[in-house]
Design goal:
The chain has 281 residues and is an alpha+beta fold. Helix content is 52%, strand content 9%. This is FRM4B protein.
Length: 281
């Protein structure tokens, strides 16, 4: 009977009903201290279990509404009063679980329960809520740390762009009241190729090699200017010197390839790398 109901709830694939039965002694650890409490449990897929729980809650609500209505109905009633009662009883009240007889009831997002105040399940639910809040706070902290990391990466990218263009991009993240940093544009990093130089050879293969040499020569000049830029920290200066040395090495390799091809074609080799770079023998 509904008056013997203590609780009905679902969690994932489990639906359970707790009722008072004076003829039986409780064997459930969940209901320690409440003699005569019997737990009956069913299992199915989550959607079916939730549907069953909703129907059970609705049926229980109907029982409570009828009981409340009967208490208010006088011994002799008019047809209008009866019609009004039936109309009120027919109003959907599935979502309204708080009634005069069922106060302090709780429904959680991952499960549902009809919990009367002071029961064991009330304490369990509060503990679950605390664990969920702690878990969400932990996730929030991790997301904030990741966001700060991404913001720092974006700042570095914007600073690199500003060094090349001389203008700070609008995407640079600024805090409230923060002014964008002043960035000095890197000098000597821009160059323009002479189109006539790329058309000086009739041999397509040799012309391709010569084009690569001219482009790499300009890259060497730019790397040299960056390496000789003043007011650089030790690590940056060392890195740029290494980049300059690598560019020179690649330029020499391209010239070696050109000379091998020129000798193969019966032409004289060149020594442009050593001539354009004083001190490189």
């Amino acid at each position: 009977q509904w008056k013997q109901l203590e609780n009905l709830y679902f969690r994932e694939k489990k639906f359970a009903v707790e009722v008072h039965d004076p003829r039986r002694i409780s064997v459930s650890r969940r209901t320690f201290g409440q003699s005569g409490l019997v737990v009956q449990t069913w299992y199915a897929n989550t959607s079916l279990i939730k549907s069953i729980w909703v129907m059970a809650i609705s049926q229980h609500q109907f029982y409570l509404d009828r009981k409340q209505s009967k208490a208010k109905i006088p011994s002799a009633r008019s047809l209008d009063d009866i019609a009004m009662d039936l109309t009120e009883m027919g109003t959907p009240k599935v979502s309204k679980l708080v009634t005069l007889e069922a106060k302090n009831q709780l429904i959680m997002a991952s499960n549902g329960s009809l919990i009367s105040s002071g029961s064991q399940d009330s304490e369990v639910s509060e503990e679950q809520k605390k664990e969920k809040i702690m878990e969400l706070k932990k996730k929030e902290k991790l997301l904030q740390e990741k966001l700060l990391q991404k913001v720092e990466e974006l700042k570095k990218i914007c600073l690199r762009e500003a060094e090349l263009t001389g203008k700070m991009p609008k995407e640079y993240p600024l805090s409230a009241g923060e002014e964008p940093p002043q960035v000095r544009r890197r000098v000597g990093t821009a160059f323009k190729l002479d189109d006539n130089l790329l058309l000086s050879e009739e041999d397509p293969a040799l012309q391709d090699l010569e084009s690569n040499f001219i482009i790499q020569q300009k890259l060497v000049e730019a790397a040299k200017k960056l390496a000789s830029e003043p007011d650089l920290c030790k690590n940056v200066k060392k890195k740029r010197k290494q980049e300059y040395a690598d560019a020179v090495k690649k330029l020499q390799e391209i010239e070696n390839s050109i000379n091998e091809y020129r000798i193969k074609c019966g032409k004289k080799p060149t020594q442009r790398t050593t001539l354009t770079l004083p001190g490189k023998q």
